[in-house]
């Protein structure tokens, strides 16, 4: 057994080991990294039986603990899902390598040449919950962009994650990427996670992926810079000049296509004139798709079976077939509501009036703004970024879907022949 | 008196007011912002007498408190220095406006148009020390990039800062920029500053400018994202293939041109073979420029009057005419030393061997890497960025000198005709 992650290293030793490996990794060519990712993909595919066996352990423990069906589903692996990991790694291998790109270059009057060059961040700390696919996906994106990664997955997927990392290490041993570039924290001790929060010297960025409480715990306690991802309380504003068919299609799609994801709609804001005219059609569409409405008084009067909505509904990321409905008289009221309750993720306006749409898109402060389209497009693969490490809901560094460039920083490289000031 | 900043608003009310003003500001044209900056520049120039009077109060309090000469110098204003603020605002007006730039644009197969557009961050919280010029400089950069700013200056410059803000407010009243976009926290209560640290809803980024203890206090206690600036423990590595004249010029320039700034050199790492051959010339140059050396044993043997160096010297940002000297036998030893003690600011190698230089620049993790040039060039105006809000020593968002683009984020704007997933 030579698997570094399974040796009893401390979390700090793991981070230091990862940092050292990052230096080696940063010197590799794109082709060397791509080949390593493809070899790792093959190894994962061939090792599906041992991975499924490890996954069985997690599943039986999960059953004992009485996890619900949705949770068990996220935890469960199949041969096909393992094939998807492998395919994901191959897709990352096919993406362009952002590192080494010269973003800008100029020469000062004194002859000093200045280059701004994209380089890896160094070591990424990834803190996530039950889904074992994140283990392979995140490692793939990190390695392709020249970064080491320290993984801390949810304890309910511990056996699966450890096995996936073991298989990845076995594969990396046949490649130029040092296997030490992928570290997995096997301890389920909460203190182990918290150590990651303040290890500024060894970890360059933390990426938490999961529910609001996980993300808040990281943001509030970390001194290591955080890439905040995730929570989406997304709104669809139906303006009085909205086309009925577009509005209904988009509302139903954004709410029901995948209700549990962050780019699903959670509140419908509707202009009262539009509602008056189209309440029957809206009510029918809502009913046909099994959506439960939580609305204000005017919404309750116009629609059927509306549960009275309170503060908590406006702020709620339901992640279910529930939808809050707020009626407004003006665009400004709609924007004020979004300002107050939105999470700066994805916000849509449905209108045939381009000026109103432009005003909405300029004044609403969010990563992704939509005119006459579903919020469901806020997603790296849907928007054509290739794989994504998460969707940033912060404003610094990266905003919206984060592909490989979000895992890089820059260096300014100055070359001279003795220039002084 | 209608000066918002001088009304007894709470810090939270000031931040909310700034956020509201940021919306108005974000809708202005570049020309409207530029005109406002020019009017403000004129008003500051014309108001020099009242600003100098306010500055007198700070200076006489400073004298009572026995501040040292360097500190008093940073605090002191003259008509000329006020003219420099004004000129700085005019230069910012002349810089290109980054907001509104479409950074990328594409159309998906389904017809959905995607634009990545640069937009203001919103509200910037600026926490700084004694220098009153930061008040006008930071406000100018914030306004030009469409951001409101909440200023918290050092209490020793309180009268000067309040007067500068009063004059700026008077000028802004004649312009399209709402004067509420510039907020100044007049309270000298430490709690007022700390409130800024956690006001995530109203403040988008904190920028601390000053010494290491100020910056660390912000980084450790803030939940608002921080742009970390400043501390520079910069090294010059003189390789065994270094040209003597270039090496001496660069060492002397980087150490003595302005010893108190962050891009000054603090440690000389020197290859022992080069030192053996050139110790006399180096010793003479050091002596001629009044530099005090703190060196390891080999440096002490080769040079004159060397104070023995310890751990604390390698880590020290002297900001004075002191220089640590470390001897090494290989490039790798030099890089290891920088890895251990550097602050990822500016690092230089002097060598005639391009391959060695490339290896140094690739392996050393810092914002600015120099081959055969002085570290003193890490500065927005020296590198041609125009004005800078600070020098980032972090890796996320912005790295190195930060001009106007560092004060922006992006929005993804999607325009469709009913697209759903």
Automatic annotation (TrEMBL), chains A, B:
Pfam family, one: Aldedh
InterPro entries for the chain: Ald_DH/histidinol_DH, Ald_DH_C, Ald_DH_N, Aldehyde_DH_dom, G-glutamylP_reductase_CS, Glu-5-SA_DH, GPR_dom
UniProt catalytic activity: L-glutamate 5-semialdehyde + phosphate + NADP(+) = L-glutamyl 5-phosphate + NADPH + H(+)
Record localization: Cytoplasm
Presence of keyword Oxidoreductase: yes
Entry keyword tRNA-binding: no
First-tier enzyme category under EC: oxidoreductase
A single GO BP: L-proline biosynthetic process
UniProt GO MF annotations: glutamate-5-semialdehyde dehydrogenase activity; NADP binding
Domain Aldehyde dehydrogenase: start-end pairs: 3-288
Pathway assigned to this chain's UniProt record: Amino-acid biosynthesis; L-proline biosynthesis; L-glutamate 5-semialdehyde from L-glutamate: step 2/2
Signal peptide: none
UniProt keyword list: Amino-acid biosynthesis, Cytoplasm, NADP, Oxidoreductase, Proline biosynthesis
GO cellular component: cytoplasm
EC number(s) on file: 1.2.1.41
Record family assignment: Belongs to the gamma-glutamyl phosphate reductase family.
Role according to the record: Catalyzes the NADPH-dependent reduction of L-glutamate 5-phosphate into L-glutamate 5-semialdehyde and phosphate. The product spontaneously undergoes cyclization to form 1-pyrroline-5-carboxylate.
The protein's name in its UniProt record: Gamma-glutamyl phosphate reductase
């Amino acid at each position: 057994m030579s698997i570094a992650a399974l040796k009893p290293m401390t979390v700090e030793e793991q981070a230091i080991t990862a940092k050292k490996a990052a230096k080696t990794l940063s010197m590799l060519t794109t082709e060397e990294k791509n080949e390593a990712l493809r070899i790792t993909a093959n190894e994962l595919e061939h090792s599906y039986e041992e991975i499924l066996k490890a996954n069985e352990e997690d599943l039986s423990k999960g059953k004992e603990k009485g996890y619900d069906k949705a949770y068990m589903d996220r935890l469960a692996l199949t041969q096909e899902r393992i094939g998807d990991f492998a395919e994901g790694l191959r897709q990352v291998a096919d993406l362009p390598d952002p590192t080494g790109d010269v973003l800008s270059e100029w020469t000062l009057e004194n002859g000093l040449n200045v280059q701004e060059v994209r380089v890896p961040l160094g070591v990424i700390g990834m803190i996530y919950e039950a889904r074992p696919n994140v283990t392979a996906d995140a490692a793939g994106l990190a390695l392709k962009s020249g970064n080491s990664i320290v993984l801390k997955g949810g304890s309910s997927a511990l056996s699966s994650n450890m096995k996936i990392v073991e298989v990845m290490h076995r594969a990396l041993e046949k490649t130029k990427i040092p296997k030490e570039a992928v570290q997995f924290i096997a301890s389920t001790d909460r203190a182990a996670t918290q150590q990651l929060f303040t290890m500024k010297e060894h970890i360059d960025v933390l990426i938490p992926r999961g529910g609001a409480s996980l993300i808040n715990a990281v943001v509030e306690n970390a001194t290591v810079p955080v890439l905040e991802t995730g929570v989406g309380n997304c709104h669809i504003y139906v303006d009085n000049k909205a086309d009925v068919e577009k509005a209904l299609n988009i509302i139903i799609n954004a709410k029901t296509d995948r209700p549990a994801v962050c780019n699903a709609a959670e509140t419908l804001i509707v202009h009262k004139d539009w509602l008056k005219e189209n309440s029957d059609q809206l009510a029918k569409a809502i009913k046909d798709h099994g959506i439960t409405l939580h609305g204000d008084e005017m919404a309750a009067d116009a629609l059927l079976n509306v549960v009275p909505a309170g503060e908590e509904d406006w702020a709620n990321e339901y992640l279910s077939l529930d939808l809050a409905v707020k009626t407004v008289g003006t665009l400004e009221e709609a924007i004020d509501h979004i300002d107050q309750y939105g999470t700066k993720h994805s916000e849509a306006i449905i209108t045939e009036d381009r000026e109103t749409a432009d005003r909405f898109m300029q004044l609403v402060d969010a990563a992704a703004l939509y005119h006459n389209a579903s919020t469901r497009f806020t997603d790296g693969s849907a928007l054509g970024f290739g794989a994504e490490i998460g969707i940033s809901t912060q404003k610094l560094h990266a905003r919206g879907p984060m592909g490989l460039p979000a895992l890089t920083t820059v260096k300014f490289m100055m070359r001279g022949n003795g220039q002084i000031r």
